[in-house]
Amino acid sequence: MYGGYGSGTGGPGSARGTAGAQGPGDVHETVGAYALGILDDAEATAFEAHLATCDWCAQQLDDLAGMEPMLAALADLPSSQGTPAIGESLSARPSPRLAERLVDEVSERRALKRRRSFFMLAAAAAMIIGGPLVVMAVNGDGGGKEPVASATSPAKDAFMHMSKKISATDSSTKVNAVIAMDSKDWGTHSVLQLKNVKGPLKCSLIAVGKNGERETVTSWAVPKWGYGIKDAKTEQAKNPLYVHGGAAFKPNEIDHFEVMTFDGKRLVEVNV
Question: Compositionally biased, Gly residues: which spans (predicted)?
Fold first, then answer.
């Protein structure tokens, strides 16, 4: 029976990487050879009987599915400049060394793909949850950690940590804007704090360069109750708006910022 073709995952019966482990005839190691289709009929039948009662081998076989078609695709590649076609250099059965390398590579790639899928799912969950940031606080009795909601949004948190801030209040609209800026390799990260604006409105923050070019940094909607209204009846309406975005301009290339409504009305201008 073919041995030494396991997936390299350190599961039951894995002989590689462990001094004094089971020999190459260990039945669990046959899963790689079975996935490659290089067992004869008697060997395949014997392994299938083992597979019916071994969850670990079943999982490894699922991870290694598709190895045989990959070898077939390699065999079909054409030759170049007198070099024999890959199919001509592969025997009917791959050598143990080649088979082991192929099995290990596929296992590693599939494990990496599963890890990437997990992190993408976690990131998507964080985006769906949204809202206030969640921080961990230690309770007083057992040192255990409990989630506590923080009122700081990502935009507000960035605003608080930026050192360069410029502000302006429009004499006509009475809208107040504070712009915080941070230089980045790709341009300028900008955060807007907006007060005394009532809706419903749709607005944009525009960065205007010294060369006259205009770039939209970010856009948002203002509900009818507004943002940063000093005498508002609700806390929601009293709180200012924090939004952030980026511009390709470097900070020293920006002349000013404008808060514009979608219908072309300028609410406030902030000179840099």
Answer: 1-14
